[in-house]
Design goal:
The chain is an alpha/beta fold. About 25% of the residues lie in helices and about 30% in strands. The longest helix has 17 residues. It is globular, with a radius of gyration of 23 Å.
């Protein structure tokens, strides 16, 4: 039987497989931008931007890419797509080596709203950003590392030793029960640099003593997969929210030149509040838009060029949405039960946990009709607390009208998440039309 999985969805799976951490997600995004002819800009240099030119700037787990319009931003405005590169997981502590009961392990802490039990009994690797002592006078240099083989495991406790599990449920203490096993505690690391530094040094091809510090995360070693009896499902880590990152990137690459300036912002640290230099509450997007607006403004109008551009701008904040769960249908508002493969979801919350207004919803609906994409809507049950996105943060920070959207998914914040194969190309189609103005 010939596969019915859209190519855009297969491209998504390859993108996620290449992106075990936000830093790798940015690197993969940059690779595709480079291949498409986008020019990388340095924050500390003057930007030689031209009308119609394509550029990007990256900082850690944050990348902003843009295609300048054929008209100045003050005259035509911006069209922004926003998403986040990070996902809940386990991060390695600064003093990582743990030795107990004859085993070698790693000290870890939870990042974001992790579903911790889903990390038990998984074959885990290690990836992230590492600072190593420099050579030739440099104090340090930063490198990416990706150990994608099963070196770590968090073993669950046998039911024979935890008889109360059936009645009391699984209760994990993050400090006591989540440190993963790295192997047996041998003599090799007792007085040396430590097991983690040895592992990272070997992966980077440097002496372990040169490893200074890190931003390292545990990651699933199982590749993404297509599932379901008719290949209608996607099983993958980090769908929340690398699926929206990939959709934004694909839309930018497909949109082509337009009068408006097209921008995508892929931010880090959304899962912990966005308050960082690389998060949506950081300054990089505002600085980028300000520089672009001023670059094409007459000298006497530089101070008001950004405000003029903002008044003509719109933003789509893209983060995954809650599909109705077959075993927990009652957790959804009765009239708002998004289905996998039912199309992108407009997310609405009157308390501004989502930034969607009736105007934003109307624009997204109109665009979806133009490209013949079905839409769904999500509103949280009134008696349940609502999550949030980068939408309200960037809307308040930039003053740009915003609509919050996302594709429906299940198992959100699990080590292994689930979505539909048809929704991803649909989201790309609406986003592409949005960027075209």
């Amino acid at each position: 039987m010939a596969s019915t999985v859209p190519q855009e969805t297969r491209d998504l799976l390859a993108y996620i497989d290449a992106s075990p951490t936000p830093y790798h997600c940015v690197a993969e995004t940059a690779r595709q931008l480079d291949a498409a002819g986008f020019m990388r800009l340095a924050e500390g240099e003057a930007w030689p931007v031209e009308l119609g030119g394509a550029y990007y700037v990256a900082r850690g787990g944050n990348v902003i890419a843009f295609r300048v319009g054929t008209k100045a931003p003050a005259e035509a405005g911006f069209r922004l797509l926003g998403a986040h590169t990070d996902s809940p997981n386990l991060r390695v502590k600064p003093e990582p080596d743990v030795r107990k009961a004859g085993y070698a392990g790693l000290a870890v802490e939870t990042y974001g709203g992790i579903l911790d039990y889903t990390w038990l009994d998984r074959d885990l690797g290690l990836a992230g950003r590492v600072a190593v002592a420099g050579e030739g006078g440099d104090r340090f240099e930063t490198r990416l590392v990706d150990v994608r083989r099963p070196i770590l495991r968090i073993p669950s406790l046998a039911i024979h030793l935890n008889r109360g599990y059936k009645d009391d449920g699984l209760k994990l203490n993050a400090q006591q029960h989540l440190p993963p096993m790295l192997g047996l505690a041998g003599a090799k690391d007792k007085d040396g640099p430590g097991a983690l530094r040895r592992l990272v040094g070997e992966a980077l091809g440097v002496d372990a003593g040169r490893v200074l510090s890190w931003d390292l995360a545990l990651c699933d070693t199982v590749p993404c997969a297509v599932g379901g009896i008719d290949e209608e499902l996607v099983f993958a880590p980090r769908l929340d929210n690398q699926a929206s990152c990939h959709a934004s990137l694909a839309a930018l690459l497909a949109a082509g030149e337009a009068a408006v300036t097209q921008v995508i912002g892929l931010y880090d640290h959304e899962e912990v509040g966005s308050g960082s230099t690389e998060g949506a509450d950081g300054p990089l997007m505002e600085w980028t838009l300000r520089r672009l607006a001023a670059a094409f403004a007459p000298e006497r109008a530089e101070t008001e060029s950004l405000a003029r551009a903002v008044s003509r701008s719109f933003q789509v904040s893209a983060d995954m949405a809650h599909a109705v769960h077959p075993n927990y249908e009652d957790r959804h508002e009765s009239g708002h039960k998004p289905m996998l493969n039912g199309g992108p979801v407009i997310k609405i919350n009157v308390n501004q946990r989502y930034a969607t207004s009736s105007e934003g919803a109307a624009l997204f609906e109109a665009l979806a009709r133009e490209v013949e994409v079905p839409l769904q809507k999500f509103v949280n049950r009134t008696d349940l607390a609502c999550g949030t996105t980068i939408g309200p943060i960037t809307a308040a920070k930039l003053g740009i009208r915003t609509v919050d959207v996302g594709n429906p998914m299940l198992s959100m914040h699990s080590i292994r998440e689930q979505a539909g194969t048809l929704d991803h190309p649909r989201m790309i189609a609406v986003m592409t039309r949005f960027l075209q103005g």
